[in-house]
Amino acid sequence: MAHDDPTVPYAARRAFLKAGAATAAAGAAGALSAATTAHAAPHAHRADARPDTLAGIEPFFGEHQGGIVTPQQSHTYAAAFDLTTDKRADVIGLLREWTDAAARMTRGEAARPLQSADDAPPADSGEVLDLGPAGLTITFGFGPGLFSHEGKDRYGLAAHRPAALIDLPRFNGDQLLPAKSGGDLYVQACANDPQVAFHAVRQLARMGYGAIQMRWGQAGFLSGARGKTARNLMGFKDGTNNPAPSDPALMSQFVWAGAEGPAWMQSGTYTVVRRIRITLEHWDQMQLGFQEQVVGRHKLSGAPIGKQNEFDPVDLDAVDKDGNPVIPDNSHVRLSNPGNNDGMRLLRRAYSYNDGTNFYIERWPPWRQETEFDAGLLFIAHQRDPRTAFVPINEKLSKFDMMNQFTTHVGSAIFACPPGAKPGSFIGAGLFDA
User: Fold this and answer.
1) Does residue 126 fall inside a structural domain?
2) In terms of CB atoms within 10 Å, which end of the chain has fewer, N or C?
3) Is 211 a member of any domain?
4) How far is CA 190 from CA 109, 141, 266, 350, in A?
């Protein structure tokens, strides 16, 4: 069902949206002559606005893939692809080509060496040749369809599918769209420039012509001052309670796959992606106090209700003078807190998204029309095992979270992201050698 189909009844569409359980600083110009400065100033301001973010290089090769514990960049473009080839050699060849291209692009180079022949299609579309690497990372993942498709073991990999790469259950309130869900191969480009992130996925998609077709793509953004927790579109700080990506012990405990699974996945991670639509028009009508009760935190400071600072510990036992929980039982913070989930944690690396607006017309009198934002959260979570992390946590949230009256999960996917590639090899080589 298309979001912008004018034949969709208004009431049905509202039910779709609200389904739920219970509820660069600019730098100064260099020393130039007065005349030159006068003409160059506007361009100098634009060029100097993002010098640090455009120059940074994140290494592609390593024990772990980039874009997982890498300090989060300001933009992403995530995409999933369906494999259309039945040849194992085609998949290996594509992954080799993708690995080489990803290593080049993260260094700020073209996806392929630029050729001089005028009569051939350009080896790279070229829209980022002057932008620099912009801290680009490219993360690859394998969906369940790589291991078997419609009951067929296309590539001889079915026996090597990790037990942790489950088919996600359908959660309460899910209204998943096939065009926004699933995928055999996953590519996520993160960068400090939106064009650099999109360019990376675009080039990889070009390389796969004949072997893959795009299933879905989603751009996202993250806004916030350096050193501060970014805010989502609801206006609340998002990711305060994350385990610190810089802490190797925490990452080993909660994020990196270990010896409990297949050898080819050790030092990799399991990634869940959910596209969550937020009815911002509904949310914006709520009183501040109610918004804070829904989330379980103060909006301005980000502190847990009853606390002063963002990183103050959440006190699940605190009660007010009447004996009521200070943090409501059905608040998002309480339900998702490790103290209510056997200590389990996952690494959130979410981005906001804004895909413009949708227009609807009611099909019965009184005739009415409405345009609403198509915006929300591209939820991305990395974990050691989704069976003990995302699934039980989201089961609880989907049933009891007060936030459900403002959110609808419309896209869902899960991927096994293997460890990092070694120079001369390719991403996921261990799987094909198993």
Assistant:
1) yes
2) N
3) yes
4) 16, 14, 23, 11
Asked, for residue 44, whether it belongs to a domain, the answer is no
88-106 and 194-207 helices cross at what angle (nearest 10)? 150
How many residues does the structure list for the chain? 434
Do 192 and 75 contact (CB within 8 A), yes or no? yes
Mean pLDDT, contiguous 10-residue spans, the chain (434 residues): 38 39 36 34 36 81 98 97 97 98 97 81 91 96 97 97 98 97 98 97 97 98 87 95 95 97 98 98 97 98 96 94 94 96 96 90 64 95 98 98 98 98 98 94
Give the chain's radius of gyration (CA, Å).
23
Residue with tokens 């906001």: 352
Quote the number of domains for the chain: 1
CA 122 to CA 163: how far, in whole Å?
42
Task: Provide the whole-model pTM.
Answer: 0.86
Enter the tokens of residue 133: 């690497």
**Domain carrying residue 104:** 10-22+52-419+427-433
DSSP 367-429: P-EEEEEEEEEEEEEEES-TTTTHHHHHHHHHHH-GGGGTEEEEEEEEEEE--PPPTTS-TTH
CA dist., res. 162 & res. 177, Å (int): 26
Burial of 179 from C-beta contacts in 10 A (0-12 / 13-18 / 19+): exposed
The bridge status of strand 137-142 relative to strand 185-191 is antiparallel
The answer to whether residue 231 is domain-embedded is yes
**Cα separation of 161 and 169, whole Å?**
18
Q: Which residue has the tokens 């350096």?
A: 226
Give the tokens for residue 179. Answer: 């065009």
